[in-house]
Structure formats: C-alpha cells, structure tokens
Amino acid sequence: MDLSCRKRFCGIAIVLALTASVASAQSAQSASNGTRGAFTNPVRAGARPWDFGALVQSGFGVTEDRGGFKFFMVGAHAGKVLTGEMGYGVLRGEFEYAVEAFPFWQSYTPTVQRQNCTVATGPLGGVGAQCSAPFTVGGTFSGVSITPILLRWNFAGTRRFVPWVQGAGGVLWTDHKYPAFGGPPIPGNTGGFSYSTLGDNGANADTSVWNFTPQFGVGVHYFTRANRSIDLGANAIHISSASLGDKNPGINASVQFTLGYSWWK
Q1: 2-51: per-residue pLDDT in tens?
Q2: Where are the beta strands (DSSP E) in 122-244?
Q3: Per CATH, is 39-264 categorized as 1.20.140.10?
Q4: pTM of the shown model
C-alpha cells in the first residue's frame, strides 16, 4: 500500500472513530433524557402540577360510645403543588394546598329513646317533671362536608409511589342536629328525677346542624401512568360543634379510609 492510500485509510478511520464517538455520546444523552422523561411521578419531575381527584371515603367512630357510628361519603379533591422539591433524604418533597368537598355525606348512628321534660310546680308547692312521650333520635344523618384548608406534604417518593401526610380543617352541615343527644327516659314523669338528668333531657338539650372537622391524614399516590394515580389514604377526624348547640357531645375521633383517582395537570 502506497503512502497516499495509507493516508486516506487513516483519514477514513479517524472520521469513523469520531462519528462513532459522537453517536455514542448522543445515544447516552438520549437515554439520559429518556430516563428523566420517563418519570410517571409528576411531583418528582418538579412540574408543580394541579391535582384533581374523585374520592370515596368511609369509616367509623373509635372513642367512648361512638363505636356504632359509621360514615360514608363521595366527593372531590382539587389541589396545587406550590413548591419545588425541598428538604433532605426521605423527607424531601413538595408542598400542596388543596380543598375537598363531599356533597354526599352520610353517618349511620344508633337510635335511642328520648323525652323532653320541663320542671313543674304542683298546686301544693311540690316540684315534679312534665315530660313528653318518648321519641326516637339518631339513625341516619345526611349532609355536606367541605374542607377549605388542606395542607399536604407530598414526599418525592419513587417513579410510581408518592407518600403524603396532611393536616386539614373543614366544616360539616347536616339535615338535622348531629349527633343526636339523649338517653333513657327519666324514671317517672312526676318525680324521681334529678336536675342533672332533666338538663340532659330538656327541650333545649340539642346539638347543632353545624360541626367542624379538624383532621390529620396519611396516604399514598400510586401512578398507573403519566399524570394518573390511584390514591389511598387514612384520616383521623374529630367532629365538634364548638358549642354552637346547647350540647356538644361530638365525636372525639373517627378513622376514615379514602379510595380515589387523580388527574395531574
């Protein structure tokens, strides 16, 4: 092979080597971009997305005499991720502000008998109680629940899983005063009563159609594909009228489980 041929061969070899090197670099860059673009989890991708979801929630009372209280509701969630990723290690994540509304809300409660009683003074100065006939309170309550303040921390998670923790406060309206207040009728309508018992069964011994719902919850989003997730959660919810009614028995704690599906935009 003469010198000119060897120069041409060397030149072609150098060109091929440079081309292969550039192609390899481009392939690596494309693979890297593809990996970054493959994140199904929009929280981890740093997109600060909107989060719109449909929810079904159900649970039960867990304190004192509220074990017979059951709950079922259907509603929606709307939130906005407001920050990029913050924090370190397993706590790294993003902050979301959201609201939830349950236009269908029901509570199934035990029924009890109640009498409305008043103090009466007899013609000879004796004091007794005049009471209505016994009537039933409790049963099924229907209403609407709105949670306008929901502060959620979405952990960075993985490509598929995004755990979260939240605190929230809401308000509940029911079609009649909730929870029902009452108990066994006063023994005897003209005597044998105590003023404390009478106070519990007086005509004004009622709660309120308005209650407040401070709550704390944990959960996880499971992304089935880009910007779509199945959502599982558990909330501890306190229900109290803050003494808007004459009585405020409330529900100190209930545990409610959530199943939802979200669209991330």
Answers
A1: 444 444 445 544 544 444 343 344 433 433 444 444 568 887 777 789 99
A2: 127-131, 135-155, 161-178, 208-212, 215-225, 228-239
A3: no
A4: 0.75
